[in-house]
Design brief:
The chain is of the alpha/beta class and 487 residues long. Helices cover 36% and strands 21% of the residues. Strands 7, 8, 9, 10, 11, 14, 15, 16 and 18 form a 9-stranded mixed β-sheet that branches. Bound molecules: ligand BES and zinc ion (ZN) (2 copies).
């Protein structure tokens, strides 16, 4: 979509569809107030009214969208309003959209532009790769949007460009996650990452099964050994380690399908397990954004990828695995596979001597029980880093909630016959024993674990900029976090 910011007002701007975003407090301009029954539009959050001015305004159609109370205005309400607007445009087959703000929002102009762009781009996202029966409305593309502003045009336009770049990263992540396991093996994921690196300023390294063996990635190999699709370790590097420039490692769980392995999942729980590589999708999507934004950072994306399948060659409950770190792991349940591949991925991250390791994974059903689907669970070994991630979440709208990572949870995963075991053996505290397991493999490097099992994939969209399936969660959060290092 072509996005521009322009000085002007909605009242004399012609167009197919004009949209006025209005808070509860801001009175409507007289020309518009005259077109609607006053009681029909209060500006309360999510309210929409479509008006046909019939020549009373330059625009053919006018859509009013409520933003709620001015004091509570966040970039999230603007993002949602923009998505609502673009969906309405699609429904009306209006190829161009003009958006105006009623009153001056108490939000930085850059944030307004960013939120509008994200809402517009994500609001039109659909996964149609396998659809052959699309209606004309579904095929319709909104090609252009203009944001009318009273001031700060350059800042708003910079925000539009930033938001669009971020949204493209989110879209890339959603596409990866929505792709079924049959079409996205670890090898294919590695090819996509390599192609991304070739297109942008990134360096890709891929370890195939033979190389993983030579180098002792026992965790990735064990989880992958039951599948006909061989595992991979994918590393994407952006920038370089140098004085005064932080090194950040992003590690993402890349299980392209999680059947549970020999500890097979019940049929109903297996549906949607193509999304078990959502962490890796967030990492790859963010690497794309980081490269496109040319951020002055050293960022390393690390994706341990495998397919977790039951077969005669599959790893078993009771097996003991030697991970890349040299630590041995007793397998109690082959369905707790994410932490096993991540053990290798996290240990590998240490070689970059990073200032921070941020890891994302659809790790546990327990986090969904604890927090539901509206917030990502966070565990950390470093409170300063955790606070930084929490703050980034509040700014970008992808919120996180911290959970404890205490010694007691490490106690729960002690093993008699190996150094550690891959579950606590009980359901209680399942998200926390998983976090403790991961923290065993990061050394003393500041570490944040983000359990996105509840936030990565939705059966029902929660917001107008979401669709059924992948949310692309993590890309906005990681980008905001990385940008915070540069400000
Ligand atoms: N990929 C699942 C976690 C998951 C569950 C993600 C629901 C998204 C939605 C993970 O590999 C898993 O199966 N975890 C087990 C761990 C248990 C065996 C200790 C779980 O949460 O049940
Ligand atoms: Zn599993
Ligand atoms: Zn899994």
């Amino acid at each position: 979509m072509e996005l521009t910011a322009k000085l002007g007002t909605l009242l004399n701007e012609p167009g197919m569809l004009s949209v006025l975003l209005s808070t509860e407090e801001a009175p409507l301009p007289a020309e518009i107030a005259g077109l609607i029954e006053a009681s029909d539009f209060s500006g309360k959050a999510k309210q929409t009214r479509l008006i046909y001015p019939h020549g009373a305004l330059a625009a053919k159609r006018l859509l009013l969208i409520g933003l709620g109370k001015a004091a509570q205005l966040s970039s999230e309400s603007v993002r949602q309003a923009a998505a609502t607007a673009v969906r309405q445009a699609q429904e009306l087959r209006a190829g161009a959209l003009t958006i105006g703000m009623n009153g001056t929002p108490a939000l930085a102009p850059l944030l307004v532009g960013q939120a509008i762009a994200e809402g517009l781009e994500l609001g039109t996202y659909r996964y149609y790769r396998y659809r052959t029966n699309l209606t004309e409305e579904q095929r319709f593309v909104v090609e252009q949007a203009t944001l009318l502003v009273g001031a700060d045009r350059d800042q708003v336009e910079a925000g539009l460009a930033l938001g669009q770049t971020i949204a493209r990263g989110v879209v890339a992540a959603r596409d990866l996650v929505n792709t079924p396991g049959s079409a996205l093996s670890p090898a294919i994921l590695a090819e996509i990452a390599t192609a991304l690196a070739a297109r942008l300023n990134l360096r890709a390294t891929v370890f195939d099964q033979a190389q993983l063996r030579e180098q002792g990635f026992g965790g990735i190999l064990a989880v992958g050994q039951g599948s006909a699709n061989e595992p991979r370790l994918i590393v994407l590097e952006y920038g370089e380690a140098k004085e005064g420039q932080p090194t950040i490692c992003l590690v993402g769980k890349g299980i392209t399908f999680d059947s549970g392995g020999l500890s097979l999942k019940p049929a109903d729980s297996m549906v949607s397990m193509k999304s078990d590589m959502s962490g890796s999708a967030a990492v790859l999507g963010t690497m794309q954004v980081v490269a496109e934004l040319n951020l002055p950072l050293h960022v390393v994306g690390i994706v341990p990828s495998a397919e977790n399948m039951p077969s005669g060659t599959a790893y078993r409950p009771d097996d003991v695995i030697t991970t890349l770190s040299g630590k041995s792991v007793e397998v109690l349940n082959t369905d707790a596979e994410g932490r096993i591949v991540l053990a290798d991925g996290l240990y590998y991250a240490q070689r970059y001597q990073p200032d921070a390791i941020i890891e994302l994974s659809t790790l546990t059903g327990a986090i969904v029980v604890a927090l539901g689907t509206h917030v990502t669970g966070m565990m950390s070994t470093n409170q300063e880093l955790a606070d930084q991630v929490k703050h980034a979440g509040e700014i970008c709208g992808e919120r996180v909630w911290q959970m404890p990572l205490w010694e007691e949870y490490h106690e729960m995963i002690k093993s008699e016959i190996a150094d550690i075991r891959n579950t606590g053996g009980v359901r209680a505290g399942g998200a926390l024993t998983a976090g403790a397991f991961l923290a065993t493999f990061v050394g003393d490097y500041p570490f944040v674990h983000l359990d996105i099992a509840g936030t990565a994939f939705v059966e029902k969209p929660r917001k107008p900029y979401e669709t059924v399936g992948s949310t692309g969660v993590g890309v906005r959060l990681l980008t905001e976090l990385l940008r915070s290092y540069t400000q």
